[in-house]
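Internal tracking record. Fields below are filled automatically when a chain is submitted to the structure queue. Please do not edit lines marked as system-generated. If the sequence contains nonstandard residues, flag them in the REMARKS field before resubmitting.
Queue: standard
Priority: normal
Entity type: single polypeptide chain
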Amino acid sequence: MSNIRIALLAFVAALSFAGAAGAQSSKSTTDMSGMSEKAPAAGASDAAAASDLTEGEVRKVDKDNKKLTIKHGPLKNLDMPGMTMVFGVKDDAMLDKLETGAKVRFQAEKIDGKIVVTKIEAAR
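SYSTEM-GENERATED OUTPUT FOLLOWS
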C-alpha cells in the first residue's frame, strides 16, 4: 500500500513540475514576442550609464599616492552603503581636475581586488 502512495506522489510531483515548466516557457515566449531585435539606441545607454553614477563630495585629493577620498551615497553596483572612503583612480589625470569640497558624480568598480574610481564628473 505504501508503494502505491509513493508512486502516486511521485506521479503528481512530476505532473506539477511539467506543468510549471511548460507555463514558464510559454510565458517567456509571449513576453519576448513584442521585443525588437535591435540594440537600444545610444541615448538610452548613455542615460542608463548616467543613472549608475553615485553622488559624492571630494574630501581629499592625494596626487602623490594617486588616491581620492570621497563621501558618497550607496554604490549599487558594489552593493555598498554610503560612507566616506579612499579610492584609487583608473586614470591619474582625474586627480588634476578635482579639488576638496567638489560635488561629484562618479562610478567605482572593483579591479584586481581594489575599489577604483573609473569615471567622475562634476555634479549637476
